[in-house]
Design goal:
Layout: H1 4-11, H2 16-37, H3 39-42, E1 49-51, H4 56-63, H5 67-81, E2 90-92, E3 119-121, E4 126-128, H6 135-138, H7 147-174, H8 176-195, H9 200-227, H10 236-257, H11 261-269, H12 271-274, H13 286-291, H14 295-308, H15 332-336, H16 339-366, H17 373-382, H18 385-398, H19 401-420, H20 426-453, H21 460-488, H22 492-507, H23 523-527
Antiparallel strand pairs: 1-4, 2-3
Catalytic activity: histamine(out) = histamine(in); L-histidyl-L-proline diketopiperazine(in) = L-histidyl-L-proline diketopiperazine(out); (R)-noradrenaline(out) = (R)-noradrenaline(in); dopamine(out) = dopamine(in)
Protein name: Solute carrier family 22 member 3
GO molecular function, one term: monoamine transmembrane transporter activity
């Protein structure tokens, strides 16, 4: 009986059918990256705000004050008494006098200096110039509550982490396309609930769930794409990440055109419902079907692929070789039980962690330093585009391992040089730091491809999901590492990034080269790489 790769070669390794499926599934990258980076615009600063004195709402309505007049009566006396008090997190601990005059509500205190009036900490009486522009103004994430904005992003990353384990396992057990479609439905429903959350607790719960399902869509679509093409065409695993970058580039345009955070949230969530239409055009992975002893279904799909590619399978292709490996549900022990699998797993987990930590650290360091938020974000995304093209040009010529190692080492050297460049030549400092950003982006994109090529079909989705969960851990740690170390010495984070990247570059040289090799079907195949 022919092997799956032999049948795939006959049916077409990257014909019209695969190109269509690839293009359709690639759109997932746009929605996932928008979710990944959405906090920048969902949680942007709400502009001017101040703390309202008790009774001010009733008095403002009776006197017909404008928002600006109420602000003047509230903040100006406070500011005159103590210039260091802005009125954002503290207010005068007084009661409005509504019986005297609408023009002098503090008349009863006229014999005392405003500097001697008592102050109180503001808890839940803020007034915003732009009340629904972001979750900050919607849920009062200011002053003592400002840390909750960081919590919202940490919760999203925890959702990614949960999705990597739960949905990665489910995709290997129940099928790629089923889990993909359920994840798309979950992202859409949770995204809509997030947009209309009545309080911050509900917002966090469904943001966690949206992160979990979002990770499910991204990981399963990536694995599905790599499993339906030939070994010479697995570069599509890199090309699909161009769509992730496109999402980063498109997001600031969406945020610029839509003034409210609910509108932005709906704009990045609703397209996931359209992906449910893929039920009729994207088949289950025939590789996965073979591992679950469903050879007839796999062969039927292969005939359909051949038909769409304008080819015809030979009559003797009535059966495909089915893996002799017993069908079992994947576990972490399967990834570390044998020597090659154990080495691959540990190195890949470290590579995912390092790539995410350095990538997010450099984005935060370069990204938001005043200026135009929308333009800065667009440029930071555009910097990533050359990464995919550099990989495409080199990876099938020199292999995976060398670009993977060199990109990490160059990123490490760039971080080290940036740390010691003087501040009076900012253009050079920015240029070298951008080189580090480009290099770590290359490493980040290559690890996706290498990870999927170093696991057998029975463990591929689970292996990629588990290893990439370290990426989410790196994303959670990155802001704390960056800001805590920068408080000691501004360039100290770059030194840490440099060490992590160079060590990673040396470790990945220990991985086997997978250029032009068929995807392994069993653990034995991996051990023989």
């Amino acid at each position: 009986m022919p092997s799956f790769d032999e049948v795939l070669k006959e049916a077409g390794e990257f014909g019209r059918f695969q190109k269509r499926v690839f293009f359709l599934l690639s759109q997932t990258g746009i929605t996932f990256s928008s979710l990944f980076a959405s906090v920048v615009f969902l949680g942007q600063a709400p502009g001017s705000f101040w703390c309202r004195i008790p009774g001010a709402a009733e008095l403002s309505e009776r006197c017909g004050w404008t928002v600006e007049e109420e602000r003047n009566f509230t903040v100006l006396p406070l500011h005159l008494g103590n210039e260091s008090v802005s009125g954002e997190c503290e207010r005068l601990d007084v009661t409005w006098d509504t019986s005297v005059s609408c023009t002098s509500p503090l008349a009863r205190y006229s014999n005392r200096s405003t500097g001697n009036l008592p102050l109180a900490t503001c808890h839940d009486s803020w007034v915003y110039e732009q009340p629904h522009s972001s979750i900050v103004s919607e849920y009062d994430l200011v002053c003592a509550n400002a840390w909750m904005l960081d919590l919202s992003q940490a919760i999203l990353n925890l959702g990614f982490l949960a999705g990597a384990f739960i949905l990665g396992y489910a995709a290997d057990r129940y099928g790629r396309i089923l889990i993909y479609l359920l994840s798309c439905l979950g992202v859409g429903i949770c995204g809509v609930i997030v947009a209309f959350s009545p309080n911050f607790t509900v917002f966090l719960i469904f943001r966690f769930l949206q992160g979990m399902f979002g990770k499910g869509t991204w990981m399963t679509c990536y694995v599905l794409v790599t499993e339906i093409v030939g070994s010479d065409q697995r570069i599509v695993g890199i090309v699909i990440q161009i769509f992730f970058t496109l999402g980063i580039i498109i997001l600031p345009g969406i945020a610029y055109l839509i003034p409210t955070w609910q509108g932005i949230q709906l704009a990045i969530s609703l397209p996931n419902f359209l992906f449910l239409l893929y039920y009729w055009v994207v088949p289950e992975s025939p590789r996965w079907l073979l591992t679950r002893k469903k050879g007839e279904k796999a062969l039927k799909i292969m005939h359909n692929i051949a038909k769409h590619n304008g080819k015809f399978l030979s009559p003797h292709y009535s059966e495909i070789t089915i893996s002799n490996q017993e069908v079992s549900n994947p576990s972490f022990l399967d990834l570390v039980r044998t020597p090659q699998m154990r080495r691959n797993t540990l190195i890949l987990m470290y590579a995912w962690f390092t790539s995410a930590l350095i990538y997010q650290g450099l984005v935060m360091r370069l990204g938001i330093i005043g200026g135009n938020l929308y333009l800065d974000f667009f440029i930071s995304g555009a910097v990533e585009l050359p990464a995919a093209f550099l990989i495409i040009v080199t990876i099938d010529r020199v292999g995976r391992r060398l670009p993977f190692a060199m990109s990490n080492i160059v990123a490490g050297i760039a971080c080290l040089i940036t740390a010691f460049l003087p501040e009076d030549i900012p253009w050079l400092k920015t240029t070298v730091a951008t080189l580090g950003r480009l290099s770590i982006t290359i490493a980040f994109e290559v690890v996706y491809l290498v990870n999927s090529e170093l696991y057998p079909t029975t463990l591929r989705n689970f292996g990629v999901s588990l290893c990439s969960s370290l990426c989410d851990l790196g994303g959670i740690i990155a802001p704390f590492l960056l800001f805590r170390l920068a408080a000691i010495w501004l360039e100290l984070p770059l030194i840490i990034f440099s060490i992590l990247a160079v060590v990673c570059g040396l470790l990945v040289l220990l991985l086997p080269e997978t250029k032009g090799i068929s995807l392994p079907e069993t653990v034995e195949d991996v051990e023989q790489l």
